[in-house]
């Protein structure tokens, strides 16, 4: 992903409380596509192609701007990405999860600092902080000094 080349690998500030914007983005996108189909718009292939192209350009520009504004490469994913509207419920029930062996964990919290999505991987419950936002990048597992995560 292009945004991973930006300089903010680890979040440097606490997370903002503006995640609701993703639902607005999703609703606007859904209404736009539905309106195109329901109005039987002519030349829909051309409109969809240009919408896709312009949407991707806006995606990268917004992602880069948010990354620099919030000093976080994953700011777009955390606050605006409409795809997470579908991914969050599926992630909650996912069988593939990172778990913490509490016997090995020394509570150094390196995993929390390194996580690009601010997930509290030391908590094994489904209600852990930002649990549904884990992207399984495995950075926490790679950086755990005691191999407590798997």
How far the N terminus sits from the C terminus, by CA atoms, comes to: 24 Å
Number of helices: 6
Largest sheet: none
Low-confidence sequence ranges: none
Question: Could you tell me the mean pLDDT?
Answer: 87
Radius of gyration of CA atoms, rounded to a whole number: 18 Å
Beta fraction: under 5%
**Secondary-structure content class:** mainly alpha
Work out the helicity level: 40-55%
Strand elements, count:
0
Oligomeric form:
single chain
The string of secondary-structure elements, in order, is HHHHHH
Q: Which overall shape is indicated by the principal axes computed on the Cα atoms?
A: elongated
Could you characterize what this model shows?
- The model has no long low-confidence stretch (mean pLDDT 87).
- Helices cover 46% and strands 0% of the residues.
- The two termini are 24 Å apart.
- The protein has 150 residues and is an all-alpha fold.
- It is built from six helices and no strands.
- It has helices at residues 21-38, 44-70, 75-79, 84-92, 110-114, 139-143.
- It is elongated, with a radius of gyration of 18 Å.
Summarize the entry for a quick read.
The chain has six helices and no strands.
SSE diagram, text form:
Elements: H1 21-38, H2 44-70, H3 75-79, H4 84-92, H5 110-114, H6 139-143
Defining key terms:
150 residues; mainly alpha; 0% strand; elongated
């Amino acid at each position: 992903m292009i945004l991973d080349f930006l300089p903010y690998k680890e979040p440097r500030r606490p997370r903002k409380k503006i995640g609701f914007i993703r639902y607005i983005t999703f609703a606007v996108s859904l209404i736009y596509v539905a309106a195109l189909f329901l109005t039987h718009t002519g030349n829909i292939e051309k409109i969809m192609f240009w919408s896709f192209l312009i949407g991707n350009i806006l995606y990268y520009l917004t992602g880069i701007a948010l990354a620099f504004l919030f000093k976080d490469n994953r700011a777009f994913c955390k606050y605006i990405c409409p795809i997470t509207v579908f991914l969050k419920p599926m992630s909650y029930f996912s069988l593939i999860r990172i778990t913490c062996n509490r016997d090995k964990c020394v509570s150094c919290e390196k995993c929390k600092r390194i996580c690009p999505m601010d997930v509290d991987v030391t908590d094994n419950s489904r209600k852990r902080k930002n649990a549904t936002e884990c992207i399984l990048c495995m950075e926490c597992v790679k950086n755990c000094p005691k191999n407590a995560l798997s």
